[in-house]
Structure formats: structure tokens, C-alpha cells
Amino acid sequence: MSALRRQLRAGLAELPALADAERTEALDVLVTRAENLLRTEQEAEVATEQVRLARLETKRTGIQRTVLYLAIVPVAVGMVSGALMLFGALSAVWLLLALPLLGAGLRIAFGPVGPTPLMVGRRLRAAYLGVPASVCTTLALLVPNGAAETVLVILATIATAATAAFLVQEVR
């Protein structure tokens, strides 16, 4: 591209010294060179955009794999909590925490990752927040009644709400 630009500048600098017939021929050559330059610049822009899209797709693919692995934890905790409720080991109040966790885990795992880097980042943050929410929920289920259980339930609720918030923001 820079060679074409230099040729155009050199041709334009020579124009005033040329006679009318030569000037017309030189202008035709310059127009052809300018068209070549424009075509080359457009091809470079298209190639740059294709590279950018390929990089984003590579990043999306890697993140989708990572997110799928991270979503296993909230889905498993939600399913086990639901099974424990069905068999009477837990009260139905735990559904308030288990269902959103299960829903978020399923959305993280099976929802399509958006096309923009911002959406990809939000999905990854949601996946990373789903794991602590699951861990806090599991610990709250295992810890006997008391202050520790209350703190863990509150932490699990906050983490689950943050996970859901990132998923809602991603859709917007």
C-alpha cells in the first residue's frame, strides 16, 4: 500500500510539468493506481475484520468449554438438593435457593454465549460466581443448624443472585 501511495504522490508531482496529452495519460495511470490502492485498502480492512472475528470465535469456544465445566457444580448441587427435598431430608424452603442455582447452572451450561466480548466476559463471571454459590449452598446443607448455617445461606443467596444478575446482563 505504501508503494502505491508513493507512486501516486510522484505522479501527482510530475503533472504540472507535463504537456496536455501527456497529462491526460498520466491522469489515467494515476486513476488506475488510485483504484488499486482503494481496492487494496478495502481488502486489508476485510482481512483485519476476519482476523478479529476469528480471534473472538476462538476465545468464545474456549470460554464456552470452561463455562460448561464450571456449570457442573451448580447443576449438581441444585439436583442433589432437589433430590434431598423430594425424599424429605430437607424442607421445601431450600427450594428458594436450589431452584435459582439449578436454573443459573443450566443457563450457564447450555445457553449460547453471546457474540460480543462483553457478553462472553459476563458469562464467564457468572460461571465463576456459580461455583462459590454452590459451595456455600453445599456447606450450608452440611453444617448443623446455627449461626454458621445462616451466614452460609446468606453468602449462597448473594452469590446466586450475583450469578443471575450477570446472566440477565448478558442477555441485554
Query: What order do the SSEs take from the amino end to the carboxyl end, as H and E?
Result: HHHHH
- State the major sheet: none
Could you tell me the mean pLDDT?
A: 84
Rg, rounded, reads: 30 Å
Strand content: under 5%
Compute the number of structural domains: 2
Number of helices: 5
Q: List how many beta strands DSSP finds.
A: 0
Oligomer: single chain
The backbone outline, from C-alpha atoms, is rod-shaped
Q: Which stretches are poorly predicted, pLDDT < 50 over at least 5 residues?
A: none
**What distance separates the N and C termini?**
41 Å
Structural class: mainly alpha
Care to describe what's here?
- There is one protein chain.
- The protein is mostly helical and 172 residues long.
- It has two domains: 2-42; 56-171.
- The protein has helices spanning 2-14, 20-86, 95-110, 117-142, 147-171.
- α1 runs antiparallel to α2, α2 (20-86) runs antiparallel to α3 and α3 packs antiparallel against α4.
- The longest helix has 67 residues, at 20-86.
- It is rod-shaped and about 100 Å long.
- The relative contact order is 0.10.
Give the topology, please.
Layout: H1 2-14, H2 20-86, H3 95-110, H4 117-142, H5 147-171
Keywords: Membrane, Transmembrane, Transmembrane helix
Transmembrane segments: 67-87, 93-114, 126-144, 150-168
Brief summary of the model shown:
The protein has 172 residues and is mostly helical. It has 5 helices and no strands.
Structural descriptors:
172 residues; 85% helix; membrane; transmembrane helix; 2 domains; mainly alpha
